[in-house]
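#help-structures
NK: newbie question, is this the right format to request a structure? protein is Regulatory protein, tetR family
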Amino acid sequence: MPPRRGRPPAAEAKLRPDAIVAAALATMQAEGLDGLTMGRVAERLGVRTASLYWHVRNKEELLDLLVDAVAAAHDLSRHVDPEDWRASLVAIMRAMRRHMLGYRDSSRLFAGRFTTGPGQLRYIETILGVLRGAGLSNRDTAYTVFLLSTFLIGFVGREQAPLSAAVSAGLSPRSYLDDLGVRLAALPPESFPHIVDLAADLVAPDLDSRFEFALDRLLDGVEALRGDIKGR
């Protein structure tokens, strides 16, 4: 993160890259992504906003730095078993889900961003290595890492988002789901037979089981790709 050219304000000497990232992460944790502004980060650092702009051009550049910092904070390579690609991917995906859930609005932060910082590059490199080790073609490897990342970000996004306006207003998710299950089961069965029959399953709150189910199905697809290659 090189400083911009020119003579910076005196406060620039206090603004180390790691301090800026730490202040931005703390701001996001406290106020969410919508509350993350250059002004709020500067305030947390105890400097003028203009001083911060000598190091970070705008909020978009700051978000790129945060993506890389979050990705770098967990070493995925420790989950890799060279002898078992599937177990490696299960461990990686579970670890990244837990890791992302530790950062407020992390799914929104990661959505759509592909930066070239060392943290995110190591994250991608690790998963690419596992997929290539599983025997996938170059094309299938590239598409699968995109698929896995999209699933992870989307699932964490569902977990981090409020279920409804009522939950945003303070109702507990469990109370909302209990009430929703009752309302779904009470729908006219002639119009919504499947929803009525499956009401309890539709509102079951066990997100761990849902994550494992979806991940298993995705990895079954990877297994099928491996089978296609072996059968050629």
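mod (FA): yep, format's fine, and the tokens are attached above. DSSP finds 13 helices and no strands in the chain.
NK: thank you!
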